């Protein structure tokens, strides 16, 4: 049974009037952004489709961009991509219709059929984690991929420049004077992002004439317990003066283990994360230096590529996906390894 407006209202714990305003893009100044985001996520979780498309179905084209994702509601990255995509669509007189597949192929195919039945012929196909993708059957010709790489090079795609981000983070540590820089990474056998970040780390060491000590590279799963185990292994077996982590959650594991061993961050150990999850990076003590994944930029690029012919022709990579820069955000978790100390920045500083 198709979800109703009331179903969305109950899921988001708001009135049906509020849901209607949000989904018709009339909420600005009337509904807080937090409440509006809750409504949009609830609608996506329920695969809610508004009957407001009916008037334009006669032309088989609607001023709507479809947004199909594997995990709209289960990752903090999604909100930034969706907000940027929605804001950009609005600039072009379109709305954004979100469908959450839960990474289930059958649900994805059904979502595509639903979009096509409603005459929606522009689709963002988004992954919430950088990966290889096989596009499902039935997508319209006007489709772009966010955070994914397809074997079909004719499909526009955008991904974070993971490798350059890791290289910049490692170079930052080298520039501070560190020579024993550890990497706490995910398993490169199944994580494309982990492979690319390892490449960037290795390239930075090579360019600075530093040998790669295998003991300085440790793999851990992305969970608190395994991150702690990986951090303990790295600190105990390799004695690094700095650690680059696969993501901000793993960096918190390094924080915990370092403190159990009486190590002060950044006086005894510098730590760099990856993602820039603000609820993590800005709340740990000291605030975490990290690489910011460019979710807003990717969401904007995707919709502009779908809707703006001039943008589509000049901003395409000639081969492979477009690489979006992932800048380093310098906070207070990094410092030189000796007693000399550079002044700490008074506010977050983002490198180019």
TrEMBL record:
Q: Where is this region: Disordered?
A: 312-352
Output the Pfam families linked to this UniProt entry.
LacI, Peripla_BP_3
| Entry keyword DNA-binding | yes
Membrane-spanning intervals of the chain: none
Spell out the CDD domains in the cross-references: HTH_LacI, PBP1_sucrose_transcription_regulator
DNA-binding recorded as keyword: yes
Protein keywords: DNA-binding, Repressor, Transcription, Transcription regulation
Q: Which residues form the signal peptide?
A: none
> Domain HTH lacI-type spans what residues?
3-59
MF terms (GO), sorted A to Z:
DNA-binding transcription factor activity; transcription cis-regulatory region binding
Q: Which InterPro entries match?
A: HTH_LacI (IPR000843), LacI/GalR-like_sensor (IPR046335), Lambda_DNA-bd_dom_sf (IPR010982), Peripla_BP_I (IPR028082)
Name of the featured protein: LacI family transcriptional regulator
